[in-house]
Amino acid sequence: MAEPILKWVGGKRQLLSDLRSRFPIKYDQYHEPFIGGGAVFFELEPTTGSINDLNRRLITFYKIIRDFPERLIEENQRHSYEEEYYYEARERFNELHALDERSVDQEIEEASLMLYLNRTGYNGLYRENQSGGFNVPFGEHSNPDFIRKRQIRAGSVILDDIDIHNDDFTYIAERATSKDLVYFDPPYEPVSKTADFTQYQSDGFSKSDQERLRDLAVRLDKDDIYVVISNSPPVWELYDHLSDFTVSYVNAARMVNSDANNRGDVAEVIITNVPREQQQQQNLQDYT
């Protein structure tokens, strides 16, 4: 079992047991169209399949881990945990993002800055303003690990034969085939104003996007592809009338919230077309 390299809003470490118990016992390739921090992906360590995210910086990060792990580790060692340096690094990170074309060296620098900012910024947040600029302030941490040698090297091995995409999540309609497993972990429909994480990226994720996701899940189901979706309770009504899908409620710890008093256990839903008799349904270790 490998570890996620980044902290990420909505990470699924607390839900791994609940999710895996609903995965099919046997499947072919594994696909994750909203990779985020990759907690489920790195737990499974798939040998074939694909990952995707609309966040270009995040996808560049995973490509650099796959293709240039040692150069990334070397670049990570240049950073220092100081507030003044943090804001200089954040400014450089945004400068690189604004470039239309970047060299490999610049992509390695950007990936390294992303990891550094992720491990030293406030509460592990990734947030963009409406112009796409990363705007998370400096965070107080005790000896933050922004080099991540072991995690990067392990991640590079796992990503070696994985296709990495920077597309709309609907790419999977052409990529997945019968008996593949697709796990969707989209930006959630908010349950309150303070819990709204759909704006972690400047273009957000709307209700119509949730409906597109539902329609895609139905299409994949018709193609005999296994589908598992995690989301927040408001989306249950999009799937409740679909006879091939089941909706179940679970509790998960939510450690990132704009209101510190609202962090803690929250209800989430897991939606799947995997028949119960084909689900793993085993007792798995709880992850915290």
From TrEMBL:
Gene3D superfamilies: Adenine-specific Methyltransferase, Domain 2 (1.10.1020.10), Vaccinia Virus protein VP39 (3.40.50.150). GO terms for molecular function: S-adenosyl-L-methionine binding; sequence-specific DNA binding; site-specific DNA-methyltransferase (adenine-specific) activity. Pfam families: MethyltransfD12. Its EC number is 2.1.1.72. InterPro entries: Ade_MeTrfase_dom_2 (IPR023095), DNA_methylase_N6_adenine_CS (IPR002052), M_m6A_EcoRV (IPR012263), MeTrfase_D12 (IPR012327), SAM-dependent_MTases_sf (IPR029063). PROSITE patterns: N6_MTASE (PS00092). It is an enzyme of class 2 (transferase). It comes from the Archaea. One of its GO terms (biological process) is DNA restriction-modification system. Keywords: Methyltransferase, S-adenosyl-L-methionine, Transferase. It catalyses: a 2'-deoxyadenosine in DNA + S-adenosyl-L-methionine = an N(6)-methyl-2'-deoxyadenosine in DNA + S-adenosyl-L-homocysteine + H(+). PANTHER family: DNA ADENINE METHYLASE. Belongs to the N(4)/N(6)-methyltransferase family. This is site-specific DNA-methyltransferase (adenine-specific). It comes from Halorubrum salinarum.
